[in-house]
Design goal:
- This protein is mainly β.
- 3% of the residues lie in helices and 59% in strands.
- It has one helix and 16 strands.
- The strands form four sheets. It has a five-stranded mixed β-sheet, with no helix packed on it. Strands 1-3-7-5 form a four-stranded antiparallel β-sheet, with no helix packed on it.
- A hairpin with a 2-residue loop joins strand 15 and strand 16.
- The radius of gyration is 25 Å and the shape is elongated.
- The N and C termini lie far apart (61 Å).
Length: 209
């Protein structure tokens, strides 16, 4: 017997936290799920899209037709920055005493979401973007170890630039290809990037075989 989509979110399935600061600490919101089906169901499992978010609910407790149950989604902004969209997924099936045993009852899922934008603390920014180019520009790194490469092989790495004070981030791809003229052995390839009108040197360490 197929289990219907019995649980629906009462109100908004996505709640906005707006703009928060990392130093504000964990943020939590409550969602309500209502059973609009004909049989009792129970939440059996919950998981989230990121380790920064946890989900809390009454596991295994029967939700009768017409009744509701609360679900709390908690987002921890520690080490985070920029826009976020964290999803909590809840798995449910028919509860004990329904017409079909929970052991063989199919499962269904319902999702809830916390969204917003996080302003990173200065301490985290310095850790994530340790390379200072100027007062208004910092980089995630200026050196990559590409390991062992052979002629004709290509690899791509990404430098992330942070613009201050807006905290806007820009991802800059950097590709290196070993051609026939590349000397064998350990090479330190210097690439020049233009970031925000400023020239930055990035070193690629590679062992050419």
């Amino acid at each position: 017997m197929f289990v219907a989509d019995s649980l629906i979110v009462v109100g908004l399935a996505t709640l906005s936290l707006g703009t928060i600061h990392e130093t504000d600490g964990p943020q939590e919101r409550t969602f309500w799920l209502r059973n609009v089906g004909q049989e009792a169901v129970a939440l059996t499992q919950g998981y989230t899209s990121c380790g920064c978010t946890t989900i809390h609910f009454s596991k295994g407790v029967a939700v009768s037709p017409g009744d509701s149950t609360a679900v709390r989604l908690r987002f921890n902004p520690r080490g985070k920055g920029g826009d976020f969209h964290e999803v909590g997924t809840l798995v449910y099936q028919k509860a004990e005493g329904s017409s079909q045993s929970p052991a063989v009852s199919p499962t269904k899922r319902v999702t809830v979401t916390l969204a917003g934008s996080c302003i990173t603390s200065e301490e985290t920014l310095l850790r994530q973007f340790p390379v200072r180019v100027s007062d208004t520009l910092r980089l995630s790194t200026v050196r990559f170890d590409l390991g062992i490469m052979h002629v004709g092989e290509s690899r791509e790495r990404t430098v992330v630039a942070l613009r201050l004070p807006s905290q806007a981030q820009e991802r800059i791809p950097l590709r290196f290809t070993v051609d026939a003229d590349t000397p064998k052995g350990l090479q330190h390839i210097v690439k020049k990037l233009k970031v925000g009108g400023q020239e930055v040197a990035v070193t690629l360490d590679v062992l050419v075989r």
